[in-house]
Design brief:
The complex is a heterodimer.
Chain A: H1 2-7, H2 18-25, H3 31-42, H4 46-56, H5 59-84, H6 94-113, H7 118-124, E1 126-132, H8 138-146, E2 154-155, E3 164-170, E4 173-179, H9 189-204, E5 207-213, H10 222-233, E6 242-247, E7 263-265, H11 274-289, H12 302-323, H13 328-346, H14 351-361
Chain B: H1 2-11, E1 20-31, H2 35-46, E2 51-55, E3 69-71, H3 75-84, H4 89-96, E4 97-103, E5 113-118, H5 120-133, E6 138-142, E7 145-150, E8 156-161, E9 166-174, E10 183-186, E11 189-192, H6 203-210, E12 215-222, E13 225-227, E14 237-239, E15 265-269, H7 272-280, H8 286-291, H9 301-307, E16 314-319, E17 326-330, H10 338-345, E18 356-358, E19 361-368, E20 385-387, H11 397-415, H12 429-440, H13 464-475, H14 480-502, E21 504-505, H15 507-513, E22 525-526, H16 527-530, H17 540-546, H18 548-551, H19 561-588, H20 607-616, H21 621-625, H22 632-645
Parallel strand pairs in B: 1-2, 1-9, 2-6, 9-20
Antiparallel strand pairs in B: 3-5, 4-5, 7-8, 8-9, 10-11, 10-19, 12-19, 13-17, 13-18, 14-15, 15-16, 16-17, 21-22
Classes of the chains: A alpha/beta, B alpha+beta.
C-alpha cells in the first residue's frame, strides 16, 4: 500500500522529522517545544529523556513566555508614556513601576542562567577526562568502567598517544569518558603533542579523574602528595574539583585510612573500590547536570543561552540609559532589542499586540 | 473644458448622460477637497499636471472638521514629512497657528511632537488663497461625483458628475473622507451627512461597492462646541505656548504670530457627575453602544467612562480662533441627545454654566479596505484609480495629508509613465502609515503613533528634509527653492560637523571648561561628540563662546546649531539602526512575482494563509512576513522558493 501511496504525485514518504516539521509549520508547537521533541528522538539516557519531555510539554516555553509577557507589558507602558503622556493622562509612576518590574525580571533571568550550564552538559554528555602519569592504570580504569553492565558503549578508535573516548550511560547520565596520554616530560614530538592534548582535555573537562598509583605515593601527608603529583603532571587544576583515583590498591600492604570524599582507593585488577568510585561519580554527575525537575527547567541549548544573555544585556543597558539621563527613546530602543532577542526563543511580538496592551491598560483618547 | 461649461451646467440641468466632454482630458482629477484632497491636487499641480479638484463646496476647502489643531506626537512627524515634500498643511499652519507647542520635549528629539492650535478661519483663508490663487495647473469646480468612468480594459478614465456630465481624466484620486454613505448620529437620531451641514456621497459609495471593493464601516465623533463666555477658566489649569514658537515648515524661520500674542489653552477634568449621566443614558445613545466594541482606544467621553470609569478624565479647552467665541473641548466627543449633552458638560469643572453653540455628534461612514491598494495608493482592481485619506480607514488630518500627497504624486507619475514614488518604513512615517494600511488593513480608525515605527531613532521630525526632500525633488514634486534650502542646510551641517569633529580635548578639560565635576576617562573627545554628553548638555552656542578662536568660523550657520546637537546625540544609534535597515532592505529585495500561486502544494500553506496572501498580494517577502496570520515558517518556505527561482528584480510599488 505504501508503494501505491507513493505513486500519488506530491506524496513523499515521510523523512525523519517530517511529522515534527509539519506540527511546527501548522503552528501547533512553538519553537522551544519542537526542540524538545527532537531531543526526545535522539535522547540516549533517562535524564536526557526526562528533560526533553519537559521541554516538549512546553515548560521551558512557558517560562520564556512568562518573561516575554512581563517584558511586553513593560514595553507597552514605556510606549504609552512616550506616545500619550502629554495629551492623555498616563498615571504618574508608570516609568518607576516599569523599572521595578524589569529589575525583578533581570534577577530571575540571571539566576536561571547561572545554573552552570547544566542542561547543555546533559544534552551533549558530561566530559570526563582521565589524566595522570603513564602506567598508573588510566586505560584499565576506562575499560573497567566501560565494562559495567547496562552501559551503552560506543568507542572511537585512537592511539593511546591521542585521546580515546567512550560514550556511556552512568546512572542515567550521559558521559563521555576520555582516556589520555600519560603526563610526563617527553622528547618525542608525537608524544609531546599527545601530552599537550591531554592537558587541554583536562582543562576543558567537566570532570577530571586524576589517577595515581597508590604504591608509588610518597610517605607524606596525602594532601601534599597529591599537590606534588599535580605539579609533576604539569596540571593546573584544582584538586577539589577532581575525583582522585588511587589505583593498584592490590599492590599496597595496608589500606590508607581517612581518605577525603573525593579520593578513592581502587584496584582495576581486583575490582576493589570500583562501586565506591561509581557512586561518587554519580553524585558529581547529579550536581553537574542538575535534576531536571518540574520546578527548574534547564537551558538545553547554547542558543537559548545566547539569546537570554543578550536580552539580559539589553535590560541592563536600559537601566544604564535611564541613569545616564539619556532620552527615553534611546532607552526604549534597548527594551525593544531585549524583547527582540527574547522573541527569538518564543516568537516575535508584533506592534499590534503591543498596542493592544497599551489600550487595554490606559485610557487613550481619539 | 469644464470651466467654460460651468454656466451651462446651471442652465441646462437635464443634460443627457450621453454628452461627454471629449476635448481636454485632465491628467489628474481629485474628488474631495479635504486635507487629503488639497495635498493631492497641489502635488499633481506642482508636478506640472493638468489637475482638477472636484468638491461639493469650494467654501469648505481647508475645513478642519473636528479638532482645531494640527500635529502632535507621531502626527507631527507626518506633517514634517509632508512639508519636506513641499506639501501644503505645514506652511499654512505656520500662517494660522495661535498656540504653538512642541510636545514630548523632555522625551528627546526623536519623539518631539510639533503641534499647534489653529485659527480655523485663518487656515481656510490661507489654504484657499494658496489653492485658488497660487497653484498653476489647478482648476476647481463645485460638483458632486456620482460615478466613475471605467474603460473596457479596466482602467479608470474619469468621473461622472451628478448632473450627468462626464469628465475625462487619465487618473482619478478619491479623497472623500467621511462622506461615503456618511451618517450623523446624535442620540438615537440618524441623518445622512458627511459632516454636519454637508451632503454625503452616496453615488460614489455605490460605485465602489459595484466595483467589488472590500468595504467596511467606521465610526468617529466630534465634541460639542461651547461659548467661551460661558466658561469659568479660573478653576482650570492654564497652559502657555512655546516661546518662541517653532514653525512646522522647513522653509520658514518663524511663524506669523508674535510669540507673546499666542493664546493659552486650559485643562480641566470630569467629575463623577459625568459618569452618572453617561451610565444612566446608554439606552438613548446608539452610537456608543455599538462603538464600545470597536476601536481599541476611547474616541468619546462615553467610551472613556464605560471602559475606565471612576476617575477624572482630562478635557482640554481649545480656542477655535483668535477672535472666535467658541471653545473646542477636546476629549468630550459625545453622541448623547443634545439636552443630555448639555447636562453632561455642566458636570465638568469650569463648565457648570456652559452654553452649547453646537452639539457633538457621531459620524459613521464607509471606508475601503486599504489592502485593496498598492503602496502607491493605486487600487489593485482599477488601474488609474487612487484612494487617499479617511476613505482608507485612517483618522486625523495629518494621516490624510500624508496619503494625499503620495496619491497625488503617484497619479501624476503614472501620467508621466514613470515609476511610482514609494516611501518605505525605513524612510519615513508616511512609509510606516502606508505599509501598515496596505499590508494589514485596519478595523478601527488608524492613527499614527511613534511606537508603530521600528526605526523611531532615525525617523525624526528634525531630519525629515534630509530623508525625503531630495527624493521628492527627483520625483518632481519639490520646488527649486526648497531644494536650495535643503542644500544649504546640508552643507552647513556637514561643515559644522567637520569643524566640531576637529576640535579635540581631553574629557577633564571639557569638564572644567563647562565647570562640571571631573571625569576619569582619558580618551580625547571631539566637540561634536561632546554635544551628545547628557551630563554636560552643551550647546553649539556655548561652545562657540567658550572657544572663539577655534569656532569663530561657525558664525553664520546658527540656523543648524540646534540640529547639530540632535545629530550628535543620535549618531551612534542611527548607525545601529542603519545596520538593521540594511538587513531589512535585503529582505525587501526578495520580490514575490505578480499572480504568484499560493496554492502550490510544495508550499504547504494553510487555507487561511493562502487566502490572506492571495488577498494582500504582498510584493516582497518582507511584506508577506507582516501579514497577520501568516506563520514564520510559511514565510520561510516562500523565501526558499523565491530565492531558488532567483527573483531579485528591484521592487516595484505596483504590479
Amino acid at each position: 500500500m505504501l508503494s501505491a501511496v507513493g505513486q500519488i504525485p506530491d506524496c513523499f514518504p515521510a523523512q525523519p522529522g517530517d511529522f515534527t516539521k509539519r506540527a511546527f509549520y501548522a503552528g501547533k508547537m512553538d519553537l522551544t517545544a519542537v526542540e524538545g521533541l527532537a531531543d526526545l528522538l535522539s535522547a540516549e539516557t533517562e535524564a536526557q529523556r526526562k528533560q526533553a519531555l519537559l521541554q516538549m510539554e512546553g515548560h521551558l516555553g512557558k517560562l520564556y513566555n512568562e518573561w516575554a509577557q512581563t517584558l511586553v507589558k513593560c514595553m507597552a507602558h514605556v510606549e504609552a508614556y512616550i506616545d500619550f503622556s502629554e495629551d492623555d493622562n498616563i498615571e504618574d509612576g508608570v516609568l518607576e513601576s516599569v523599572e521595578k518590574k524589569l529589575k525583578v525580571l533581570a534577577e530571575e533571568m540571571k539566576s536561571h542562567m547561572s545554573d552552570e550550564r547544566r542542561g547543555e552538559i546533559l544534552r551533549s554528555g558530561v566530559q570526563v577526562s582521565i589524566v595522570g602519569e603513564p602506567n598508573v592504570g588510566k586505560s584499565s580504569l576506562l575499560n573497567t568502567l566501560a565494562q559495567r553492565p547496562a552501559a551503552i558503549v560506543t568507542s572511537q578508535a585512537g592511539t593511546t598517544r591521542d585521546l580515546v573516548r567512550v560514550s556511556m550511560d552512568l546512572g542515567g547520565f550521559p558521559v563521555q569518558l576520555c582516556d589520555t596520554a600519560g603526563l610526563r616530560e617527553a622528547s618525542d614530538e608525537v608524544e609531546k603533542e599527545g601530552i599537550h592534548r591531554a592537558k587541554a582535555a583536562a582543562a576543558k573537562a567537566d570532570l577530571v579523574l586524576l589517577v595515581a598509583s597508590a604504591p608509588l605515593l610518597p610517605k607524606v601527608p596525602l594532601e601534599q602528595a597529591l599537590q606534588n603529583y599535580l605539579k609533576t603532571c604539569g596540571l593546573s587544576i584544582n584538586l577539589k574539583d577532581c575525583i582522585v583515583v588511587l589505583n593498584k590498591s592490590d599492590l599496597i600492604p595496608d589500606k590508607i585510612q581517612e581518605l577525603p570524599e573525593n579520593v578513592i582507593l581502587t584496584s582495576c585488577e581486583s575490582g576493589e573500590g570500583i562501586s565506591q568510585l561509581l557512586s561518587v561519580l554519580q553524585n558529581r554527575l547529579t550536581s553537574l547536570c542538575g535534576d531536571p525537575s518540574r520546578e527548574c527547567p534547564t537551558i538545553t541549548q547554547a542558543r537559548h543561552r545566547t539569546y537570554l544573555e543578550t536580552c539580559l544585556e539589553y535590560l541592563h543597558e536600559y537601566q544604564r540609559s535611564l541613569e545616564a539621563e539619556q532620552d527615553l527613546v534611546i532607552a526604549a530602543e534597548q527594551l525593544r532589542q531585549a524583547l527582540r532577542h527574547l522573541g527569538m526563543l518564543t516568537g516575535k511580538v508584533s506592534t499590534e499586540q503591543l498596542l493592544d496592551l497599551v489600550f487595554s491598560e490606559f485610557c487613550i483618547g481619539k | 473644458m469644464i470651466l467654460r461649461r460651468r454656466s451651462l451646467i446651471r442652465v441646462l440641468p437635464a443634460l443627457s448622460r450621453q454628452f461627454s466632454c471629449a476635448e481636454g482630458t485632465y491628467d489628474v482629477v481629485v474628488v474631495g477637497g479635504g486635507h487629503a484632497g488639497t495635498e493631492a491636487c497641489a502635488a499633481a499641480a506642482r508636478m506640472g499636471r493638468k489637475t482638477l479638484l472636484v468638491t461639493h463646496k469650494k467654501s469648505t476647502i481647508g475645513e478642519m472638521s473636528c479638532n482645531p489643531s494640527f500635529g502632535g506626537v507621531g502626527k507631527g512627524h507626518l506633517m514634517k514629512e509632508v512639508d519636506a515634500l513641499d506639501g501644503v498643511c505645514g506652511r499654512i499652519c505656520d500662517l494660522s497657528g495661535i498656540h504653538y507647542k512642541v510636545l514630548n520635549v523632555r522625551k528627546g528629539p526623536a519623539v518631539w511632537g510639533p503641534r499647534a492650535q489653529i485659527d480655523r478661519k485663518l487656515y481656510k483663508k490661507h489654504l484657499q488663497n494658496e489653492i485658488f490663487n497660487h497653484t498653476p495647473n489647478l482648476e476647481i469646480i463645485e460638483a458632486a461625483v456620482e460615478d466613475l468612468m471605467i474603460h473596457e480594459n479596466g482602467h479608470c478614465t474619469g468621473i461622472v458628475l451628478e448632473n450627468g456630465e462626464y469628465v475625462s481624466s487619465k487618473t482619478v484620486v478619491i479623497t472623500t473622507g467621511t462622506f461615503l454613505n456618511g451618517q450623523i448620529n446624535i442620540g438615537l437620531d440618524v441623518r445622512p451627512a458627511g459632516r454636519v451641514g454637508d451632503e454625503p456621497s452616496i453615488g460614489l459609495a455605490k460605485t465602489l461597492e459595484r466595483l467589488k471593493f472590500r468595504m467596511g464601516v467606521l465610526k468617529t465623533g466630534t465634541p460639542p462646541r461651547i461659548y467661551r463666555s460661558s466658561i469659568d477658566f479660573s478653576d482650570c489649569e492654564k497652559h502657555l505656548a512655546d516661546m518662541p514658537p517653532l514653525p512646522f515648515s522647513f522653509i520658514n524661520s518663524q511663524v506669523w504670530i508674535k510669540p507673546e500674542d499666542q493664546v493659552p489653552c486650559h485643562l480641566t477634568y470630569t467629575t463623577p457627575g459625568v459618569d452618572k449621566i453617561v451610565k444612566e443614558n446608554l439606552h438613548v445613545n446608539r452610537h456608543v453602544s455599538e462603538e464600545i466594541t470597536g476601536p481599541r482606544y476611547c474616541p468619546s467621553i462615553e467610551s472613556k467612562i464605560l471602559r475606565f470609569g471612576n476617575r477624572a478624565h482630562q478635557i482640554w479647552l481649545e480656542p477655535e480662533g483668535l477672535d472666535s467665541d467658541l471653545i473646542y473641548p477636546a476629549g468630550l466627543s459625545c453622541t448623547l441627545p443634545e439636552d443630555l449633552q448639555l447636562q453632561l458638560i455642566r458636570q465638568v469643572k469650569g463648565l457648570e454654566n456652559a452654553v452649547l453653540a453646537k452639539p457633538g455628534y457621531g459620524v459613521q461612514y464607509d471606508f475601503v479596505d486599504p489592502r485593496e491598494l498598492w503602496p502607491s495608493l493605486e487600487t489593485k482592481k482599477i488601474p488609474g484609480l487612487f484612494l487617499a485619506g479617511q476613505i482608507n480607514g485612517t483618522t486625523g488630518y495629518e494621516e490624510a495629508a500624508a496619503q494625499g500627497i503620495i496619491a497625488g504624486m503617484n497619479a501624476a507619475l503614472q501620467v508621466l509613465e514613470r515609476e511610482p514614488f514609494v516611501i518605505r518604513r525605513t524612510e519615513g512615517y508616511i512609509g510606516v502609515l502606508i505599509d501598515d494600511l496596505t499590508t494589514h488593513g485596519t478595523n478601527e480608525p488608524y492613527r499614527m503613533f511613534t511606537s508603530r515605527a521600528e526605526f523611531r531613532v532615525y525617523l525624526r521630525p528634525d531630519n525629515a528634509d534630509i530623508r525625503l526632500t531630495k527624493k521628492g525633488f527627483d520625483a518632481g514634486v519639490v520646488s527649486n527653492e526648497r531644494m536650495q534650502v535643503l542644500q544649504q542646510t546640508q552643507s552647513s551641517l556637514e561643515y559644522c560637523e567637520e569643524v566640531l569633529q576637529s576640535v579635540m580635548l581631553a574629557p577633564r578639560k571639557w569638564k572644567s571648561l563647562f565647570k562640571k565635576p571631573n571625569s576619569t576617562s582619558t580618551a580625547s573627545k571631539s566637540a561634536f561628540s561632546l554635544l551628545a554628553d547628557s551630563s554636560i548638555k552643551a550647546t553649539v552656542f556655548q561652545l562657540r563662546n567658550l572657544m572663539p578662536d577655534e569656532l569663530r568660523c561657525l558664525d553664520g550657520t546658527e540656523a543648524v546649531w540646534d540640529r547639530l546637537v540632535i545629530c550628535s546625540t543620535y549618531k551612534y544609534y542611527e548607525k545601529m539602526q542603519t545596520a538593521e535597515i540594511e538587513a531589512i532592505k535585503k529582505e525587501q529585495e526578495l520580490v514575490i512575482p505578480k499572480n504568484f500561486d499560493y496554492n502550490m502544494p510544495r508550499l504547504s500553506l494553510s487555507m487561511e494563509e493562502r487566502e490572506k496572501l492571495a488577498f494582500s498580494q504582498p510584493q516582497t517577502i518582507a511584506a508577506a512576513s507582516r501579514i497577520p496570520g501568516v506563520t514564520p515558517s510559511a514565510v520561510l518556505r516562500l523565501m526558499v522558493y523565491v530565492k531558488q527561482k532567483g527573483h531579485k528584480a528591484p521592487v516595484a510599488a505596483r504590479g
